[in-house]
Specification:
two-stranded antiparallel ribbon, mainly alpha, 2 domains
């Protein structure tokens, strides 16, 4: 198998997802400009599978090698869902199942069914959409774009990114809101909220969301955003 990133000729629809997963190797691909080497990601995925790592723990292991592998990709390609569909359906479908279901089903259709102890995987975890919310749902795009917002394409310190994915509540709160596109907001909220209980994370996200209607968050620096999230206590 080639170590290079590819993209499908056409994006996959929700109606065609099961059949695409059953016949993933037969899906037609189109030429990919440039060269993106997936060797580092391949190695990491093999290691986490052998180690039996499952569910949300996968995020913190995969976010760095995924971002390092893809960050050289041209800007206009990053929202091409044919690339993200190739990653989830053709290259690494087992990771999607392990992340959201905990095990790989005998047949793809089984993975979308509920009952008899089975946990269904929403199709959006394979597909996503070309929007901030959709990127936050595709299993691999959510990791990549979160890293981009927190450290950018040249960053090498992934500690803050891993902290974000230690709080699924915070990641969801950021990916569902327009201010989740702002790197400064991402950095402040991750530093201030990622280690807190879910209830406090939700409260912090809601508070900033309410303020965003009256304050231009994109004009504030990190210190000003932090003051909004965690104001100083009133002096006696």
């Amino acid at each position: 198998m080639s170590n290079s990133l590819q993209r499908l000729q056409s994006p996959i629809s929700e109606q065609g997802l099961v059949e695409a997963l059953r016949n993933a190797r037969g899906l037609p691909v189109s030429g990919f400009p440039g060269e993106v080497d997936l060797s580092l990601l391949d190695q990491t995925i093999q290691e986490v599978i052998e180690a039996g790592i499952r569910e949300s723990a996968l995020d913190t292991f995969l976010v760095e090698p995924l971002h390092r592998s893809l960050r050289g990709m041209e800007e206009e390609l990053r929202t091409d869902m044919r690339i993200w569909h190739w990653l989830t359906v053709v290259r690494y479908p087992e990771i999607v199942w392990l992340r959201w279901r905990g095990s790989v089903p005998a047949d793809p259709e089984d993975g979308f069914m509920v009952g008899n102890g089975r946990r269904p995987v929403p199709s959006v975890r394979f597909l996503g959409t070309a929007s901030i919310n959709g990127h936050g749902r595709n299993t691999f795009a959510r990791l990549f774009f979160a890293a981009e917002r927190l450290i950018g394409s040249d960053g090498n310190d992934y500690d803050l990114v891993r902290r974000l994915f230690s709080s699924q509540e915070l990641h969801l709160g950021l990916s569902d809101r327009e201010y989740g596109l702002l790197p400064r907001v991402n950095r402040v909220l991750t530093r201030q909220l990622a280690d807190l209980p879910d209830q406090q994370v939700r409260a912090g996200v809601r508070n900033l969301n309410a303020l965003g209607g009256s304050i231009c968050l994109d004009l504030l620096d990190e210190a000003e955003i932090q003051q909004l999230v965690c104001p100083d206590p009133v002096q006696a």
